[in-house]
Amino acid sequence: IQECFIIMFKSCLVVGAGNAGRPVARLLNYRGVDVTISDAKKFDEFTTRRQGRLKLLEDEGVKLQLGVKQPCIDEFDAVFLAPTIPETAPIYQQVLDQKKEIVTRKTISDIVNEELPMPKIGITGSFGKTTTTDMLTHIFKAAGYNLYQCSSMKWNLVSEAVVDDIIRGEPKGADVAIVELPHGTLGLLGELDLDIGVITNLRPEHLCEFGGSFQKYVDRKACMLD
């Protein structure tokens, strides 16, 4: 019997309306948390595509707090800090001083694990992730499995695509889930309970996002095997 993951906080401030903050805000809102998403950028400073995602969040009940450089965390039970926010930022110390619950990769992974209770296969690598995901999907479908699949073919940010699918109920009733896991998605969902992890290859790609360190890039990919 699968344990129910209980969210122990009622309100959350998501700091950063970027590629991590948006799916976190939307998923927590879906699970009944009172969510506010904050960003130093004003609405019109986001790309048109990102503006569309922010409007979707607002339509679903997430409060937008944009153009705010120093958000106030006093009224919130929990805080999610986007990975792009340095640990030297003052808000980190505020969170510690006020003993707020910190929403982590583990928190979000646990929620997604519950929403995807079926056996899961995750595919990562520098190249070939989408192709491998597609190939495995065809193999499992040909074998008669009822499948849930998510890759960058749905949306270039797979974490947002997964949350989209969860809210629409697409994974319900599936026997197996096959999910492409780019490095950005692993940064958010790196603690998914995978039954099978596939690493297609590892080459020095996107190192600008890892301080130029190939080892840090490898470590990000390898987290799915823990």
Describe the protein.
The chain is α/β, with parallel strands linked by helices and 226 residues long. It is 36% helix and 17% strand. It contains eight helices and nine strands. It has helices spanning 21-30, 48-59, 90-97, 105-115, 129-142, 158-168, 183-189, 214-222; strands spanning 11-15, 34-39, 63-66, 78-81, 101-102, 120-124, 147-150, 176-180, 196-199. The strands form two sheets. A five-stranded parallel beta sheet has the order 3-2-1-4-5, with helices on one face. Helix 6 (158-168) links the parallel strand 7 and strand 8. Helix 1 (21-30) packs parallel to helix 6. The longest helix has 14 residues, at 129-142. It is globular.
Give a short synopsis of this structure:
The protein is of the alpha/beta class and 226 residues long.
SSE arrangement:
Layout: E1 11-15, H1 21-30, E2 34-39, H2 48-59, E3 63-66, E4 78-81, H3 90-97, E5 101-102, H4 105-115, E6 120-124, H5 129-142, E7 147-150, H6 158-168, E8 176-180, H7 183-189, E9 196-199, H8 214-222
Parallel strand pairs: 1-2, 1-4, 2-3, 4-5, 6-8, 6-9, 7-8
Helix pairs in contact: 1-6
Taken in chain order, the helices and strands follow as EHEHEEHEHEHEHEHEH
Structural class: alpha/beta
Low-confidence stretches: none
**Outline, from the CA principal axes?**
globular
Q: How many helical stretches?
A: 8
Q: What oligomeric assembly is this protein in? A: single chain
Radius of gyration: 18 Å
